[in-house]
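Contributing new records

If you add data, match the layout below exactly. Sequence lines come first and carry their own label; structure lines follow with theirs. Keep one chain per record. Anything else will be rejected by the validation script.
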Amino acid sequence: MLELIVKNLDVLKRKVTLIPENSFDLLSIFRLINVDDVIYSETSREIKKERADGRYDSERVVVEIGVRVEKKTADPLLKRIGFTGRIVYESKQLDLLGKYHTIHVSPGRELEVESRERFDKLYSFAQSYLKKKRIEKLVCIAVDNENIALTEFSNKGLKTIYSKTFTPISRNLEEKYSSEESLYEKLEEIKTLLNNMLKNDEKVKITILGPSIYVERVTEYFRKNAKNLFENIVKRGYTSQGGEMGIMEALRRGELREYSEELKPIKDSIEVEEFIEKMSSNPEKVALSLREVVEAWRMKAVEKVLVSEKYLWENIVNEELSQLLDEAERGRLDLRVILDGLEASEKILGLGGIVATLYYPLKLSERKTK
C-alpha cells in the first residue's frame, strides 16, 4: 500500500525502472539492491576545457551513469540511501569509466536497476507494485469552536495543509455574528485550497470531523457556497475536538476505519491502538523490543510485528532485524512498518521501536531477568 512507481520492467535486459515517492520506498529499495547489481541514474559533472591561450572553461554536463554496487549506505538523519561502486557505463564520453562514484537516492529521483544474479527477486518486487491500484486522495476538515485544520491523507503520511484558530463561537447573541463570520472566513480559505486540489485531481474525497454542531455548520456552508465540494463529501465523523488534535483523535478512535485498506496512516493507527489494547489486557501475549520479538519468533509464537519507520532506518543493517524483514518478504511473517509523523509511530518508539503480538502467552527471558 505504498506509492513507489514502477515505470518500466524489462525482462530481456533484466532491468527495472523505479521512482520512490517516500522514505519508506527508499528502505524497500535499499534492501532490494545488492552488491554487483548495476544502478543507472542521471548526474551532473563539471567538465573543464582548455582554451588555446592555456586558460580553462568549465561546463556542467548532465550524464547518465551506471554504477556496479560495491557498498550501500542508509542515512537515517537525511532519509537518504546511497550506492557506491565503479562506473561501468556513461552516456557521454567523459572518461568516467572505472572511477568510483556514489549515487544518492531520495524520493522523486528515478533510477534503473539491473540485476543479473537476483533478477527473480527484482521481478517479483516490481510485479507486486505494478498490480497495485493508485488510490484517491482523502482530505479531512476538522473543526470546533476555536480550531480548524485541513489535512491530506496519503500513503506518504499526513500533510497538514491548513491550520488556524479563530474567535470562539459565543452563546452571546451580540457576539454570535462576528464569531461565525470568523469561521466562515476560514472556510472560504479552505474552499480555495480544495478547489485548487480539484484542478489537479478530480478524485479528492472530503471528510468533515468535529463536534456534531460544527460538522453540520461546515456541511451546510459547502452545500450553499460550494456545491462541487459538497458533492465530494464522503463522510461526516464526530470527535470531541477539531483542528489537528481532532485529526489525531479520529485516528486513535478508528473514526476513519473504512479507509484503512486504502490509506496506510489510518491502517497504521488502528494496528497500534489494537496492539496497545492487547498489551493492556494480556502483557504476556506481546513482545517488546527487538530482543523479545526475535526470541518469540524463534519459538514460532509471533502473530504480527509492528516496527516504527524511524527504528527501521536506524537499524536497517542489524542482522536480526534483517532476518525478520527477509521472513516478511517471503510471506512467512506478518510485519507492518508504522510511518513516521504519526502519533502511532511515537507510541511504538516508546515501547522499544519494534513490538509483536503473540499466538500464546510467553514469559520472555528479558522480562525474567528484571
